[in-house]
Amino acid sequence: RAQLAPGGVLRAGINLSNVLLVTGRSADGDPAGLAPDMARRIASALGVPAKLVPFPHPDQLCDAAKDGAWDVCLIGADPARAEKIAFTDAYCEIQATYMVPVASERTVADMDAQGIRIASKKKGAFDLWLSRNLKHAELVQEQTLDGAYDAFHDQGLDALAGLRPKLAADLGKHPGRYRVLDGHFMAVQQALGCLRPADGARAGQDFLAEFARNAKQSGLVQELIDLHGVTGKLSVAT
C-alpha cells in the first residue's frame, strides 16, 4: 500500500482507446469495462479507494509515467514500455492480425515482403511489435485507429494491422471490399503495471503479480470478460 498508493488513493491509468477493455461510461462519467473493474478490485485488495486516470492513447499513458500521473496502469505489456513500467504477466490477451483486400492472396506468414505497405496505429502494442520485427515491409503509421483504416483504404495499401475484433467490426465500413486474415502475428498481452521505484523496492510489483495470477486462477478475469460482453474477443491469458 505504501508503494502503490502512497497518497491513500490508488490512481489507475486507463487506456481509453482499447474498446474491449473500456466498453463505455458509468453513470458518473468514469470509464467502465474490464480494465476499470480490475483497477477497482486492486484498490479494494489494498484497502484504499480507486481513482481512474484516463488517457486517450497508450503512448500518452506511458509518457505520463515520468510525471508520476498514476500509480498503476492497465495496458498492453511491451519491451519498449517496460523500460519505464514494471509489468506483471498478462491477465488477458487479444489477437493482432491483418485486414487485406478480398482478392489478396497474402497470408499472415508472408506479409513481411519487399514492396508491401501496412497501415498501423502508431505506438499501439501491435505497432511496437511490427516496428521491431518487420524487416522488409513498409509500416505506414497513423495517429489513430480510424486514421490507419483511412490510410489503408484511401491509399490502396496492402494490409491494415490491428486487433482482430476491431478489424472485424471495420469490415462493415466497406462491405465486400476487405477480409480479415486467419491466424495472427502476435497477441497483445494485457497486463498490470507500476512505476519502477528508484530504490528498487519490489513490494508493489510483487503484489500486482500475485493479484494478476489470482485473478486468472479464481475466474475473476473470465467473469469480467463475460460481464462486459467481450466473450470471444478477449481471452484469459495462459
Give an account of the 3D structure.
- The protein has 238 residues and is of the alpha/beta class.
- It has two domains: 10-93 and 189-236, D-Maltodextrin-Binding Protein, domain 2; 94-180, 3-Layer(aba) Sandwich (D-Maltodextrin-Binding Protein, domain 2), CATH 3.40.190.
- Helix content is 29%, strand content 27%.
- The chain has helices at 34-46, 58-63, 125-133, 145-154, 164-170, 203-217, 220-227; strands at residues 10-15, 24-25, 31-32, 50-55, 72-76, 85-87, 92-101, 117-121, 138-142, 159-163, 178-180, 186-195, 235-236.
- The strands form two sheets. Strands 1, 4, 5, 6, 7, 8, 9, 10, 11, 12 and 13 form an eleven-stranded mixed beta sheet that branches.
- The longest helix has 15 residues, at 203-217.
- This is Solute-binding protein family 3/N-terminal domain-containing protein.
- Residues 9-232 form the Solute-binding protein family 3/N-terminal domain.
- Keywords: Signal.
- Pfam families: SBP_bac_3.
- It comes from Zooxanthella nutricula.
